[in-house]
Amino acid sequence: xxxxxxxxxxxxxxxxxxxxxxxxxxxxxxxxxxxxxxxxxxxxxxxxxxxxxxxxxxxxxxxxxxxxxxxxxxxxxxxxxxxxxxxxxxxxxxxxxxxxxxxxxxxxxxxxxxxxxxxxxxxxxxxxxxxxx
Length: 133
Prior knowledge:
Layout: H1 8-19, H2 32-37, H3 41-61, H4 73-84, H5 97-109
C-alpha cells in the first residue's frame, strides 16, 4: 500500500480549507436487533466514545507529561486546531452533517446504494439530539 498523493498532508489540508470537510475515518455500527433489545445501547456507546475522546484530547494537551514519543505533539495539536477547530474528530449528526451527506451522495453516484440517505437515516433516533456530553 502507498499513498495516492506524495505530499498527502498538503493535499488534505488544501481539501479541508476548500470544502471545510475532513473525511470521516471510522464509524460505529450497532445492529438494529441489539438496539431493539437494549434501547440504551446507542446513547451509552456515544457517551463512552465522547468521554474517551475528551480524555485523549486532555492527554494530548498535557505538556509536562507527554503521552506520545513524537517530538512535537503539542505543536501538532495546536496546528490541527488552528486549521480545523478544537474538536477535529467530532461525533454525532450535526457536526458531521456535510460529510455524511457527501458520503451518501458519492455512494449513490458510484452505484453503491440506490437512494441517497439523510444523515438522520444513519443514526439511532435516540442519538440524534446528542451533542457533547
